[in-house]
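Example for tutorial group B:
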């Protein structure tokens, strides 16, 4: 897995998979401070213009990656919870149930 802060690859034992998101306590601490100081910044999705229409950038990036349109039932989740970070590495495609589960877990 890659650390959500420094992107360093690190090993996670199978029993901790899905729970550990950071390579060190230093990155965990940075994540907590970033979450607090950027709470307003991270509350808005980025919108862009495509063919004269305003669209959500994260959905557009995923559609380009998959080379198809997304269904309204498909959710694009920001792995690091930063709604302005629309790199494909930070996005994952989920159904409604999977997306709800991701947001019911507290990463910090």
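The residue assignment follows.
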């Amino acid at each position: 897995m890659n650390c959500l802060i420094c992107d360093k690859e690190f090993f996670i034992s199978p029993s901790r998979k899905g729970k550990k998101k950071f390579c060190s306590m230093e990155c965990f601490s940075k994540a907590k401070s970033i979450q607090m100081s950027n709470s307003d910044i991270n509350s808005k999705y980025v919108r862009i213009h495509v063919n004269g229409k305003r669209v959500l950038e994260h959905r557009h990036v995923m559609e380009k990656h998959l080379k198809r349109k997304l269904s309204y039932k498909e959710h694009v989740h920001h792995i690091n919870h930063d709604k302005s970070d629309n790199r494909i590495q930070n996005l994952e495609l989920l159904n409604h149930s999977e997306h709800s589960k991701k947001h019911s877990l507290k990463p910090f």
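Confidence is low (pLDDT under 50) at residues 36-42. Compare this with the pattern of hydrophobic and polar residues in the output above.
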